[in-house]
Design a protein that fits this description.
alpha/beta, 9 helices, 234 residues, six-stranded parallel sheet, Undecaprenyl pyrophosphate synthetase, Z-farnesyl diphosphate synthase activity, 6 strands
Length: 234
């Protein structure tokens, strides 16, 4: 195992629909196969001592999918999060525009977070209804609202808007930025995932669709990361 390991890994769980099509199954079957692969991934992260994992399960753009696809997907996500919470192995933290989600899903995400609040284990950010631009907009809005509650003037608020202040209002505030971002399915683009936090992250693109992502693929990503000389954006 490499000595140089990431503290925080972001994972773009991509390829469920294409995997389902390739094996002649329904889209819902693909999403269920993808959901079943989440717990093994978190187990592999536990094994090597990763501290934080961010799982991108649903983007804000995905919320505009046809109802016949979206509704089963939302239920699959809710069931997956319930299952992770039931293990009592990981501390779950929903990240995303929760107010854009159906009430029932938002409630289950919040319940999972509350149920695992005291778990001393891997911190798992569950990104549902997540978009990087939306997060930055929400962070700036929250920063300005805090200033307004204090009675700060417009000039004072303008002086307060800096990198550190915005970082303190992100969904992942208080956490280390991701050292490594993994995207499955062969796509080589960020797609809006952790736009602010990944400014100096290393990226690993895996050809396997998410349901086929194996421990050996995970270890290859870690090995690739360990061999790189990080320049932190330079």
């Amino acid at each position: 195992m490499p000595d140089n390991l990431p503290r925080h890994i972001g994972v773009m769980l991509d390829g469920n629909r294409r995997w389902a099509k390739a094996v002649g199954q329904s889209t819902a079957h693909g999403h269920r196969a993808g959901a079943a692969n989440i717990e093994p991934l978190l187990g592999w992260c536990d094994e090597v001592g990763v501290e934080v994992v961010t799982l991108w399960l649903l983007s804000t753009d995905n919320l505009h999918r046809p109802a016949e696809e979206l509704e089963p997907l939302l239920e699959i996500i809710a069931e997956a999060v319930d299952s992770l919470a039931d293990t009592r192995r990981w501390r779950l933290h929903p990240v995303g525009a929760v107010d854009l989600l159906p009430d029932r899903l938002a409630e289950r995400l919040k319940a999972a977070e509350e149920a695992t609040r005291d778990v001393d284990g891997l911190w798992v950010n569950v990104a549902v209804g997540y978009g990087g631009r939306q997060e930055i907009a929400d962070a700036v809005r929250s920063l300005l609202a805090d200033g307004a509650r204090r009675g700060a003037s417009l000039e004072e608020l303008a002086r307060e808007v800096d990198i550190d202040a915005i970082s303190e209002h992100l969904y992942t505030k208080g956490q280390p930025d991701p050292d490594l971002v993994i995207r499955t399915s062969g796509e080589q683009r960020l797609g809006g995932f952790l736009l602010w936090q990944s400014a100096t992250s290393e990226f690993y693109f895996c050809e396997a669709y998410w349901p086929d992502f194996r421990r050996v693929d995970f270890l290859r990503a870690l090995r690739s990361y360990a061999l790189r000389q990080r320049r932190f954006g330079a």
